[in-house]
Amino acid sequence: MQTNQHNYLSFQKQFSPYKWYKPLLVTLATLGFFFVMMLVLTIFGTLLAANQGYEPDKLFTSGYDNLDTYSPLGALLSLGGIAIGIPALALGNRVVNARPFSSYSSSRGGFRLGVFAKCFGAALVLVALPLVLISVFTDQNSGIVRFSVLGFIMCTVLAPLQCAAEEYIFRGHIMQMFGAWIKFPVIPILLQTFFFAAAHPYNLTGVISVGLMGVFLGVCAYVTNGLEASCALHITNNLSAFYLTGFGFGSVKTEVDVIELVIVAVVCCLYLAFIIFADKKLGWFNGKKSDGVAEFNAKIAAK
């Protein structure tokens, strides 16, 4: 894209210590840190649950049917257990010393909150609003508020971090890893989509729906050369689902039907079309900061 400094998919190749195997080392190190953090979080959650009659094992053995984002402990384990992917990736990257962590965010010098805020506003109108209206007018409200006050606060805080962690892992790391190896962008986008869909235990229709979402998220990152637009889409989609079910509209479940798949496809198409317009006509994603390549390479050369 002429509005950006580098192709986001092959951006890591600009850094002087880049070797083809380094992304693999980052992957292994990240997995190691992730499992250690997850073990600590699970032990901590289990000890807390022992005094509350809570069954944390259900979160990990029954798909989404027992997903709890409504209580403080449930939000901590289900959403916090994914949000730890961000520090895990940061530590994995630091151990390998592969590149600046900011380069996972974008090729414009890191994650830009101003750009994210604009994308988030667009996603609220084009994604969240249609999903909420469709659910309110088609789902019968159970009258049961699942949220506790503290659970609502923790869901609101941790859900964006959970979504951001998935963006950093799947679009920031995995898609860029394949992008550094493979010239044609469609292949890295599809490969990260495969891993993204495989990580979600839905039925076949649900996996297809997640796969479509993965494609849209990947294209957003590729078109904008960063994660701000994909994070905004991911966060609004997930928060809409959590808020609706938390206040009695429907439920998050493993079985997804075709209508839900079509709805996701339509709202994501609208959002992606607007993001492309914002890139080409509004200049939302123009590179205005140093991309960090020269500074990082100079630091390595000085050692």
Describe it.
The protein has 303 residues and is an all-alpha fold. The protein has one domain (8-286). The protein is built from 13 helices and no strands. The protein has helices at 22-49, 57-61, 72-78, 80-83, 85-96, 102-105, 113-138, 149-181, 186-198, 204-224, 228-246, 258-282, 293-302. The longest helix is centred in the middle third of the chain and has 33 residues, at 149-181. The protein starts with 21 loop residues before the first helix and ends with a helix. The model has no long low-confidence stretch (mean pLDDT 90).
How far from one another are the termini?
34 Å
Alpha plus pi helix count: 13
Structural class: mainly alpha
Strand percentage lies at under 5%
Rounded average pLDDT: 90
Low-pLDDT runs: none
The arrangement of helices and strands along the chain is HHHHHHHHHHHHH
How many distinct domains?
Answer: 1
The percentage helix is 55-70%
Please give the radius of gyration in angstroms: 20 Å
Biggest sheet overview: none
Overall outline:
globular
Number of strands: 0
